[in-house]
Amino acid sequence: MTSIDALLELLGRVGACRSAAVLVNDEEFFQWPRAAVKAMKSQRLLVKARPASSAICQGCESNCVMPVHTLTVTTSKPSSFIVCDKRSDINRVPVPPGRLIQWQCNTDLVSAFVASSLGLRGPGRQTDRADRREIGIICGDKRSQMLCLETSGTLTLVVGNSKVPLAEFAEFHSGSYTLDAVSIRQLADSATTADGRFTPSNARREARKLATQAKYESWRKEYRALRKKRPDMSDVWYAQEICKMKIAKGRAVETIRKNMKK
């Protein structure tokens, strides 16, 4: 198994579990390359989970999965054991603490990994669909669009109407997992349909420009009126008075001062 194989196995399990967390124990780690496990932990694809509440009983050859009981003694380490109720010649079966250690991965951690790999600072929130999460704005050469992670069976990156499995972008270099950022950014340009919320049109840009100009003009008009009433006051005073009015639109005094005289 290669480091990429280990990541693909983890991503596949997260996709299959959808909203539930995937739990991995140290025994499974023995089957994965050490470099892969180290990278997953350091890059927070895997985080520490609560100790396992059940384990395979090693009291006999049946290998039953049984609940684990833990007694905490103040003078020593916690003692964990399984109570066998299948055979009369077995009672308590000790469980080493190391067998209860487990790590977890979920869609939140995968989303954060994608955002970190691409240098995004997006909202990382769930959309109106239960199986889709927003990661952040991805910028192509022609347009910018919201990058989402779809979790319905297979973890898939979605931009506009373009969908590609996350696993296809996975890479492993110099002890760390990365994503093919160039190919992902190309999705923003290749999508034939876009989310209008994140792809500004010329009409929307022009409307915002006109709204800003109108706001500045209202400040200038009020500035001239104030100067007639109080001609000896400073520009800061005039800006402070305008800041108290509805026409300020919540802007700072300094912003008003810079634009009320042009």
Describe the structure.
- By secondary structure, this protein is of the alpha+beta class.
- It is built from eight helices and 14 strands.
- It has a four-stranded antiparallel beta sheet with strand order 9-10-11-12, covered by helices on one side.
- Helix 1 packs across helix 3 and helix 7 crosses helix 8.
- The relative contact order is 0.11.
Secondary structure layout plus pairing:
Blueprint: H1 3-17, E1 22-25, H2 26-29, H3 34-42, E2 47-48, E3 54-56, E4 65-67, E5 69-71, E6 79-83, E7 92-94, E8 102-105, H4 107-118, E9 132-139, E10 144-150, E11 156-159, E12 162-165, E13 170-173, E14 176-179, H5 181-190, H6 202-229, H7 235-243, H8 253-259
Helix pairs in contact: 1-3, 7-8
Order of helices and strands: HEHHEEEEEEEHEEEEEEHHHH
Number of helices: 8
Q: What global shape is seen?
A: elongated
Q: Note the gap between the termini.
A: 67 Å
Oligomer: single chain
Instruction: Round the mean pLDDT to the nearest integer and report it.
Output: 81
**Helical percent range?**
25-40%
Would you count the extended β strands for me? 14
Largest sheet: 4 strands, antiparallel
- Note poorly predicted spans: none
